[in-house]
Each structure stands twice: as structure tokens, then as C-alpha cells.
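Input C-alpha cells:
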């Protein structure tokens, strides 16, 4: 004996509930609206971002004797360390090795510092988030912009390095802002993503330090891409965005040749997609920041 099925209240006879299609699922995700609001938050909160950037810059090296001069000294120290590692320990013969290394180490230091600072930008402003209502997306955006300003000061160190190596100067150095813009978009995409995730999982900020350390050696910062052609590791370099970014920096600063335009364009397209997805995720979870911080 079978039991008759119960009728669903309010349901029409002869109709079945169809699963949501791609359009319905897309609308439920609210992707377009949240991404548009995120870009609007960064565009309309310029004064707040400017204030936060100034605060971050003043806080950096604020208690040191040398102060902001460390922005110029830090890259030179890193260059000296890796120069000894490459030319003495590994016995690699690289002409004008300091400039070869500095052209990649400087932008990498910008990326690593900006990403680590932006990841903790939300958790470090817990009191501000609980007291004032404002779009939290400006926090990682300000940290990333502060890193870009620091990179601008570091370029002075790069120009000083051309004093002993004037033969490497070329007109292609004028394309440096284009490469920096691509790197900025890529860094901002990761910064927004990790800032949102780190607010709920604090292990992210600790894990990220190890990831960036491995990422550095998996990028052509202390070696050239041509040195690993034909090896299995070459496939890792092929999918690494910083292969194209650092190669472009080194092309214009050391070899006097044009950037890798195709590689940079590919990185830019991927970065814009990642940035949109990161903003969407951040806007979806930012309402819970005040409860957990």
C-alpha cells in the first residue's frame, strides 16, 4: 500500500520546481554589484586612503635613528647579501652582478612588504573597525599604495647604482611605470584576498611569510630565466607571474631591451580577474569583521 504524496502549500498543480540556471546563480552571487561597489569605495574614499597611507609611511622606521633613509638603505643591503651568495658562494660569473640583482630584488621587496602589510591591515585596525563605519576595502588598498610609494623612494637607489654602471642606461627605463602598474594591480588583487581571509584565519599571515620566501626562489630574481631553459623547473617559471614581471624589469634596467609585453599583458588580464574576485569575496565577508575582531 502506497502513501499518497502531500501537496505543497501554495504550489500550482502540474508545476515542478526547476533547478536554478546560470543566470539565477550569477544573480545570487551578486558578483557585479559587489565588485562595482568595491571599486567605487576605493575611488570615492581617496582622502581616507591618503590619510591611511600617510599613517603607514610615518609608522615605518619611525623609531629609528636613520628614519625614512632606510627606504634607500634596505635594498642595498639585500643586494649586497645576494651578490655575495651568487658570485662567491655559487661562483656564478655575472657581469655587473649588483645591477643584475638589484633590478629584480627592488620590485620583489615592494611586492613582499606590501603583501605582508596588507594581509594584516584589517586585523591591525580592529578598534577602528568597531568604532567607525567605513568601507573596509580601503585598508588593504592603502597598505598596497603605501608600498608603491616606498618603491618610488627605492628607485632613487636604482638610479644611484647607474653611477658605476652607466653603460646599462637606456631609453627603455621610461617604460618602468608600465611594469610597475601591472605589478601594482597584481599585488592589490592578492592583498585584498589575503586581508579578507586573514581576518577569519590568522594562520594566513604566518603561512604567507613562508610562501613568499619560497616564491622568491621560484622567481628569476637571483638568476636569469635562460639559465633554467630545458629543465623541469622551467614549467614552474612559465606559470609564475613574477617571471614576466621581473624579466621585464631586468630587461629595461640591465639589458637595455624592451619589456616582455606579451607576458605583462597576460599578467594584467589575470590580475584584473583576480582583483574582481578578491573584491567580491572581501565585500561578502566584511560585514562580519566587527564581530570577530
Amino acid at each position: 500500500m502506497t502513501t499518497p504524496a502531500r501537496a505543497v502549500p501554495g504550489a500550482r498543480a502540474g508545476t515542478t520546481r526547476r533547478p536554478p540556471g546560470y543566470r539565477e546563480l550569477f544573480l545570487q552571487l551578486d558578483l557585479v554589484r559587489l565588485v562595482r561597489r568595491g571599486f567605487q569605495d576605493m575611488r570615492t574614499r581617496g582622502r581616507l586612503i591618503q590619510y591611511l597611507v600617510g599613517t603607514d609611511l610615518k609608522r615605518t622606521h619611525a623609531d629609528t635613528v636613520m628614519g625614512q633613509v632606510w627606504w634607500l638603505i634596505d635594498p642595498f643591503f639585500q643586494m649586497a647579501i645576494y651578490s655575495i651568495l651568487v658570485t662567491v658562494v655559487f661562483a656564478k660569473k655575472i657581469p655587473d652582478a649588483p645591477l643584475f640583482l638589484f633590478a629584480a630584488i627592488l620590485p620583489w621587496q615592494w611586492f613582499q612588504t606590501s603583501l605582508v602589510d596588507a594581509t594584516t591591515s584589517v586585523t591591525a585596525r580592529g578598534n577602528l573597525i568597531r568604532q567607525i563605519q567605513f568601507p573596509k576595502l580601503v585598508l588593504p588598498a592603502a597598505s598596497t599604495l603605501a608600498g608603491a610609494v616606498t618603491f618610488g623612494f627605492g628607485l632613487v637607489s636604482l638610479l644611484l647604482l647607474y653611477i658605476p654602471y652607466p653603460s646599462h642606461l637606456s631609453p627603455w627605463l621610461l617604460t618602468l611605470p608600465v611594469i610597475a602598474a601591472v605589478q601594482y594591480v597584481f599585488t592589490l588583487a592578492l592583498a585584498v584576498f589575503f586581508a579578507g581571509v586573514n581576518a577569519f584565519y590568522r594562520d594566513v599571515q604566518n603561512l604567507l611569510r613562508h610562501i613568499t620566501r619560497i616564491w622568491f626562489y621560484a622567481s628569476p630574481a637571483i638568476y636569469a630565466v635562460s639559465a633554467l631553459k630545458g629543465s623541469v623547473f622551467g614549467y614552474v617559471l612559465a606559470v609564475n607571474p613574477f617571471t614576466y614581471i621581473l624579466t621585464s624589469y631586468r630587461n629595461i634596467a640591465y639589458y637595455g631591451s624592451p619589456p616582455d609585453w606579451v607576458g605583462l599583458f597576460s599578467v594584467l588580464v589575470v590580475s584584473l580577474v583576480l582583483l574582481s574576485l578578491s573584491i567580491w569575496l572581501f565585500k561578502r565577508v566584511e560585514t562580519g569583521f566587527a564581530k570577530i575582531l
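Residues 261-285 form the longest helix (25 residues). The chain has 13 helices and no strands.
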